[in-house]
Amino acid sequence: MIKTVLFDLDGTLLPFEQEDFIKVYFGELCKRLAPMGYEPKQTVTSIWAGTKSMIMNDGTRLNSVAFWETFNSMNPGLPDAKRSCDEFYTHEFDNAKATLKYVPDRKPLIEKLRSAGMRVVLATNPIFPMDGVITRMRWVNLQPEDFEFVTCYDNSTFCKPNIKYYEEIFGKLRLKPEECIMVGNSVPEDMVVEKLGVRTFLANEFIENPDKLDVSTYPQGTLDEAVEYILANR
C-alpha cells in the first residue's frame, strides 16, 4: 500500500537538462559575486567543492555548514558571500527559469495525490537554501505549502545518493519505507532508495543514468502516468 509520495525536483517536476541549468545558474551567481572580488573561475571551483562537501556529509552537521565552511576556506580575505548569495536566490536566480524546456503547471498533479489522501514530500537533493528551492518550485506553480516537507541544505545532514538522506526523511516524518514511493529522473540518486524497500517510479523524460544501467525493470513514464500508477497501487 502506498501512502506517501516523494518527488524529486530538478529534471522531474522541473523539465530541464542539468547542464543547461547549471550553466545559467553559475553564470548569474558569478556576476553577482564579481563586484565583491570573487573571480568567476575560482567561484565555480569553490561552488563545486562546497557541493562535494555536502554530498560527502556524514550527518554531523547541516549541509549548509558543510558548504560554507568549504567555500569560505577557498576564498580567504574576501568578504563573506553568504548574505549576497541569499539575496541572489530570490532575485537573479530566477533567470535560470529560461532553461525549462516548457512551463508546466504541476499543482493539479500534486493536488490529485493529496485529495486521494496521499502524503507528499519534495525530496530534492538538499544542496540549495530554502529560497533557492522555493524559486524553482514557483517556476511550475508550486509552493512549500503543497508538500508536507521540503528538503533543503538548512534542514538536512545528508545528500543523494547517500541512502541516509532518505532515512533522515523517514525518521523525521515517521514514515514506513514500504508505504512510500519515490518518483525521480535520476537512476543513481532516486532509484537507490529501493535498497530500503521503497517503491520507485522513473520519470523518463529527462533520465539521468551516467552508468548506463538497465532501467527496464523500473515502472516508468511521464508524471501523469506516475500519478495513475500510484493511485492504482495505493
What is the residue-averaged pLDDT? 97
> How are helices and strands ordered from N to C?
EHHHHHEHEHEEEH
Shape: globular
The figure for the number of domains is 2
Low-confidence stretches: none
Task: Provide a descriptive summary of the structure in words.
This protein is α/β, with parallel strands linked by helices and 234 residues long. The protein folds into two domains: 4-16 and 100-232, HAD superfamily/HAD-like (Rossmann fold, 3-Layer(aba) Sandwich), CATH 3.40.50; 19-97. The protein is built from eight helices and six strands. The protein has helices at 18-33, 40-55, 63-73, 82-88, 107-115, 130-138, 163-173, 223-232, and strands at 4-7, 119-122, 149-150, 180-184, 199-203, 220-221. It has a six-stranded parallel beta sheet. The radius of gyration is 18 Å and the shape is globular. The mean pLDDT is 97.
